């Protein structure tokens, strides 16, 4: 199976490149901020400097690791799902379930090793840059020396390795348990059920998110940055809960928008979303996370800043530190979510060369295929914006009530429009650009390849 493993990595580069980029970027972000924890733990660092750096590292290492692990697991699971037909043929040729599991794990370990090489210097550069920014804003003393060692590597890569191996084991176990016939059917159509475990996880996350939102609105009024922290938890937990339900949300969106998608390519796009909802869900999940986190964190920070100015208070050193932390968390995690969106969109679209070839052979023109792909992308974006905004509001509305006494924030829609513009450009650019590349392959060649 070792030969099959490396042959698969060479012959299906798009999805594995997406997984590599996710592992690389996640490793760089987590090791970079973990190095701040190691820097703060060094001898001779003052307690104030240690608190600033280690708080920042723990926040990124906590929520950031959870979201990065979620995106990494989603990408690796999608990579295995796209190869269900190949796995079925391996079983038909005599491969055992244990061999299938080891093949998937071997592919994941290879990607982890390869991604760790560039992620290490990138993490060092990120850590140095953040420390320099903290020094320039006088949140950390100029004499603090940067450290990057075994602790930073262990914390940073430990999260990525655990998440990737768990995802690979789960995906490999599912693929190994299916019969050859079931694998062939699964490669053609989706399993329309969500599964009990997925529903339980979604319910738990949504309940925890709702509980955090209720705490902010009822028990933490005028609590300052502690209140903002819990509001951020409400946003993140709600976004993760909705992301777990992404296949069902895609089918619901297709049902709602179906009557509006009756033009050229629209009918086929709605049918594609209903029949292959898990593929579209791979794009929807990071879109929801990006919209929720970017809007939630930015609006909450601006609400806090405006409340401070309205009270005629000046920002303390702690206030500036939390503000810096908020923007760093938003920037790093939003960057990761955008990369996941682009990677999954490109890899998923390129994987559909065979489907595009079949449609062209039965009479569709390349323009018809592109219009259908545009409709699909717009439907995914609509779902991502709606449900991502719902998740953001789960944190923003109670936080605004806790700080101002009113539910609706007065900061306007400028931030929302900016976040929307970024995700629309990234998603449409990735999907339509990959679709154009896929259509360059002649129809017969795509059908055979």
From TrEMBL:
Principal cellular location given in the protein's record: membrane
Membrane topology: Multi-pass membrane protein
Domain annotation ABC3 transporter permease C-terminal: ranges: 63-179, 328-442
Pfam short name (any one): FtsX
Key word Cell membrane present: yes
Alphabetic keyword roster: Cell membrane, Membrane, Transmembrane, Transmembrane helix
Keyword Repressor: no
Top-level taxonomic group: Bacteria
Compartments, record wording: Cell membrane
Membrane-spanning ranges: 12-37, 57-80, 104-126, 146-171, 199-218, 230-250, 280-299, 325-350, 378-401, 413-434
Similarity comment: family membership: Belongs to the ABC-4 integral membrane protein family.
Name of the protein in its database record: ABC transporter permease
């Amino acid at each position: 199976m070792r030969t099959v493993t490396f042959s698969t990595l060479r012959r299906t580069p798009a999805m594995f490149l997406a997984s590599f980029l996710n592992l690389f970027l996640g490793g760089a972000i987590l090791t970079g901020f973990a190095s701040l924890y190691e820097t703060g733990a060094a001898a001779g660092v003052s307690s104030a400097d240690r608190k600033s750096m280690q708080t920042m590292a723990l926040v990124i290492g906590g929520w950031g690791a959870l979201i990065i692990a979620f995106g990494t697991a989603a990408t690796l699971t999608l990579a295995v799902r796209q190869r269900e037909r190949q796995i079925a043929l391996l079983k038909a040729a005599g491969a055992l379930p244990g061999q299938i599991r080891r093949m998937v794990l071997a592919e994941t370990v290879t990607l982890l090793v390869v991604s760790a090489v560039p992620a290490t210097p990138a993490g060092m550069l990120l850590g140095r840059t953040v420390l320099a920014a903290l020094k320039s804003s006088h949140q950390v003393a100029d004499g603090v020396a940067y450290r990057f060692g075994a602790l930073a590597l262990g914390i940073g890569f430990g999260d990525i390795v655990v998440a990737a191996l768990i995802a690979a084991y789960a995906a490999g176990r599912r693929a190994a348990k299916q019969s050859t016939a079931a694998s062939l059917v699964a490669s053609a159509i989706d399993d329309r059920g969500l599964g009990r475990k997925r529903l339980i996880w979604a319910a738990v996350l949504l309940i925890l998110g709702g509980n955090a939102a209720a705490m902010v609105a009822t028990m933490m009024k005028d609590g300052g940055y502690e209140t903002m922290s819990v509001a951020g938890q409400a946003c993140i937990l709600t976004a993760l809960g909705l992301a777990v339900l992404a296949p069902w949300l895609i089918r619901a969106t297709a049902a709602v928008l179906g009557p509006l998608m009756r033009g050229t390519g629209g009918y086929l796009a709605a049918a594609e979303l209903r029949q292959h909802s898990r593929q579209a869900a791979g794009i929807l999940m990071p879109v929801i996370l990006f919209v929720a986190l970017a809007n939630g964190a930015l609006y909450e920070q601006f609400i806090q800043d405006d409340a401070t100015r309205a009270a005629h208070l000046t920002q303390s050193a702690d206030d500036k530190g939390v503000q810096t932390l908020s923007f760093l968390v938003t920037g790093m995690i939003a960057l990761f979510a955008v990369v996941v969106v682009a990677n999954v969109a490109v890899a998923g679209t390129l994987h559909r060369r065979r489907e595009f070839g079949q449609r062209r052979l039965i009479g569709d023109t390349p323009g018809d295929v592109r219009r259908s792909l545009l409709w699909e992308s717009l439907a995914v974006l609509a779902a991502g914006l709606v449900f991502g905004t719902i998740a953001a509001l789960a944190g923003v509305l109670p936080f605004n009530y806790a700080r101002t006494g009113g539910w609706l924030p007065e900061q306007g829609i400028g931030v929302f429009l900016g976040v929307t513009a970024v995700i629309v450009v990234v998603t449409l650019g990735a999907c339509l650009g990959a679709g154009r590349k896929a259509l360059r392959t002649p129809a017969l060649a795509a059908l055979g390849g």
